[in-house]
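Dear colleagues,

As part of the handover before I leave the project, I'm documenting each prediction I ran so the next person doesn't have to rerun anything. This entry is a single chain, and its sequence is reproduced below.
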Amino acid sequence: MEDVARRAEEQSTLRRAQILNLQYVDTSQGEKKLYPEVLSNQDLYTYKAIPLYVDAHNIHFGVVNNTSQKTMSSLRQRFLDQRVSFSLISDSGFKDYMLKYDPPAKIEYKDISIADTGSRQLTESISKILSEVRADDMLAYLVQQAHRLAASDIHLETQKKYTRIRFRIDGVLHTIANLQPDKYRILISAIASAGNISTAETAAQQGHISQAVTMADESRVQVNLRLETVMTVNGIDVVMRLFNMDQESYKLERLGLSEQERAVVDDIIAKPTGLAMVVGPTGSGKTTTLYSMLNTLNTEGRKIITIEDPVEYQLEGISQIPINSKASDDSHFANSLRAILRLDPDVVMVGEVRDMDTAKTALQASLTGHLVLTTFHASSASAALARLMDVIDQNPLFVSAIRLVMAQRLVRKLDPSTKQPYEPTEAELATLRQVLDSMPENAHKPSLEGLQLYKPGSSDENPYGFSGQIALREQFLMTGKIREILEDGIANSAHDIEAAAIESGMQTMLQDGVIKVIAGETTLEEIYRVIG
């Protein structure tokens, strides 16, 4: 396509030369000889004229369509000792010559190290790189480095004098660069154009970018992001959630489920009907858990349909339907769910239950021969179920439809190569003992005798002492005491539901976290940072 466009431009330039009674030179053909002694680079830009041929008595210039007669006269006056002549060349031809006379400075794309994040030296270095590249490359470079560091989000935060760029790595934000306002305006314009959002809109916006960018160093970056924007007193703030497009990443084996948790999940997805719900705040890995379930269910014998806002990961073999929340209200989820149930799916995934109408439709679908998977924003499994009580309303059929409620949060995992052992204090032992004593009688409780805990160490490559994240989970099935109080309508709060779930054998996220602390996988400070 580029060759066709260039040929068309050269033909147009030829016709223009005939009209102006000028010679024409096709600079797309042949070698380009440079004569840097004739004019400086600044003169070349000013005159919009390129010396095409020079000898002791002649100078032949190539000029473009908007080079004025006054400029040509000035060149004749400047070179009185030579015979000066002119030919018309295309604008692309002029640009090609200028890239040879004045090549752009070679940009070295520095790889960001986790050890440097937050340092003044790194901030200045990355800020300099971003200030020198084009807008598309700015975004592609940030995405490339975020993937290298296994970051989940890129945060662009407008301050009074600059825009701060931070990566969320293992759940914690790290400063990468500070961008000057003029460069940020260029970057936000490129993001807005690619993500179909408006830089003039004062309301919060959502968007999605999916494109491949070839950067100046020829590296190719797949940019796949979900955008969330909000207007602040200093300008538009943006959070960009990175999507991992590797389908092999979404497997139950990679979720870190315990044997008991895996057995429950396997049992749920082995059955053809019911509702399984994964709950937690934004960034807790809910969608990853659901996609791993879907990937396991994705066989030739099943029809799987999802409705999502937006479609975060494209899984081969699954029909995925995007819902545009900007163009409709939340009830559109429920309407879309009713529509896809007529397509005879075996498994349905609802990206998120946002309203009670969608919740009720999902429950009804799970009663009529479908396995329904969904996510829900709630602080705990019991809190999610308490919010569904208005839908359940002492209906034993709806209660039986709910098969699994799983809540999760992500905490940083200690780097096994640098973690440091230490003897726990009496206060820490008392905390551990109190949590273990609250576990069900039949639960396996680790011994605290001679216990050794671990704290983060440090190395040149990893000064923070953490590497990756692990999930803290709590989950309950609709059995035993929990089912009894829901069917009888005697559960009045999340506290009542949690107490009944614990009595039925549920292990809370706090208890799961303490077990992982005792196992040396994370720290008490990290547990309380995330779940309080």
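The radius of gyration is 31 Å. The first strand starts at residue 23 and ends at 24.

All the best with the project,
I.
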